[in-house]
Amino acid sequence: MYPSDFEYAAPTTVQEALELLRQNPEAKVLAGGHSLLPAMRIRLMSPPLLVDIGKLSELKGVRADGGVAIGALTTYHDLEASSELAQRLPVLVECASNVGDPQVRNRGTIGGSIAHADPAADMPAVVLALGAEMKVVGPNGERTISADDFFVDMLQTALEPGELLTEITVPPMPEQMGAAYEKFKHPASGYAIVGVAVMVHRGADGNVSDCRIAVTGAGPRAQRARAAEDALKSGMDVAEAAARASDGLEYIGDISASEEYRANLVRVLTKRALTRAMEQLR
Ligand SMILES: Cc1cc2nc3c(=O)[nH]c(=O)nc-3n(C[C@H](O)[C@H](O)[C@H](O)COP(=O)(O)OP(=O)(O)OC[C@H]3O[C@@H](n4cnc5c(N)ncnc54)[C@H](O)[C@@H]3O)c2cc1C
After folding, report:
1. Binding site membership of 109 for ligand 1 (Cβ less than 6 Å)
2. CATH (domain of 145)
3. Which of the residues 69, 123, 207, 222 has the least number of beta carbons within 10 Å of its own beta carbon?
4. Using the 8-state DSSP alphabet, how is residue 153 labeled?
5. Ligand 1 atom at shortest distance from the alpha carbon of 159
6. Looking at the structure, do residues 163 and 184 belong to the same domain, yes or no?
7. Which CATH number goes with the domain that contains 13?
8. Judgement on whether residues 198 and 225 belong to the same structural domain of the protein
9. Do 224 and 129 share a structural domain?
């Protein structure tokens, strides 16, 4: 099917983009187009105007000073190629290199993935596990939304109409940090049937002082596996904590996998991801 007719604009400044969004409340932002255009082709979405943000070069690239700031328009390929990320947050490189295929990674952007909030997308789990913050600009100026508050429901985020996601920031990490992402891929699309991202910190006493575990694919949105986090922080070992990872999550069952199957994947992948993250602490 072809998309409905639409107008196209390619602003060259963020202000111009915001003004176009203000004047056209039904407009959609176009980044890499790898989620939006397929949705338009099946007429799941029919925006009258596409605001292509591809010329906003200030939204591209990775900056590292203490923490790490990633422009919303940074492609998966750029994340894979970033030496700053390879050094400071290799879990983001690992995640990016597991998205789709080279064509998808060359066009798709981290901001597009996060703003779209597909329940099976990879990046939402990783930014949630890393405790990232989303920098947003809109008609009422700038604001910051924590990853914990950002993913609201299936394809729904805390972004308000007319707002643009500009940057994803990850706070500075302690030396003793381990992180990993494990994904069970859909064999055709490469999307996560379930994906689990984990981050663990070790305190001066040698015990796990902080832990965040985030799951994608299991339910309508990326969600924290808090029962497993609490178990690990209370001194349980990886196997005991992972056995609790599926507790308290929301699930969806569909043609690809039942709710029970997804719950089992959550436990299995949490164990694998935690094992790898804990090895990085040694
Ligand atoms: C064949 C195929 C395989 C794929 N496999 C995977 C996979 O394995 N894992 C995975 O996670 N994803 C996968 N994807 C999805 C891909 O990663 C998308 O590129 C990504 O989800 C969306 O990013 P985009 O830049 O293409 O956004 P677009 O498609 O341009 O936009 C998506 C949505 O986000 C909004 N948006 C985009 N940027 C912003 C912004 N800065 N501020 C506010 N709103 C914004 C748009 O208005 C739109 O509603 C796949 C896609 C395809 C086509």
Report:
1. yes
2. 3.30.465.10
3. 207
4. E
5. 43
6. no
7. 3.30.43.10
8. yes
9. no
Alpha helices in the chain (DSSP H): 14-23, 36-41, 76-81, 83-88, 90-96, 102-107, 110-116, 123-129, 147-150, 226-233, 238-243, 259-281
Residue 282: pLDDT over 80: no
Q: Is 31's C-beta closer than 6 angstroms to any atom of ligand 1? A: yes
Residue nearest to atom 12 of ligand 1 (CA): 121
One domain for residues 242 and 275: yes
Greater pLDDT, 225 or 205: 225
- In a shared domain, residues 196 and 253: yes
Taking the centre of ligand 1 as the mean of its atom positions, its distance from the CA of residue 203, in whole angstroms, is: 37
Return the structure tokens found at 189.
């699309």
pLDDT tens digits along 38-96 = 999 999 999 999 999 999 999 999 999 889 999 999 999 999 999 999 999 999 999 99
What distance in angstroms lies between residue 117's CA and the mean position of ligand 1's atoms? 8
Domain residues for 260? 177-281
Structure pTM? 0.97
CA trace torsion 216, 219, 223, 225 (10° rounding): -90
At residue 16 the predicted structure's pLDDT band, cuts being 50, 70 and 90, is very high
Task: Tell whether 64 and 166 lie within a shared domain.
Answer: yes
Alpha carbon distance 121, 276 (integer Å): 21
Structurally, how many domains does the chain consist of? 3
Verify whether ligand 1 is closer than 6 Å to residue 121 (CB atom): yes
Tell me: do 70 and 43 sit in the same domain. Answer: no
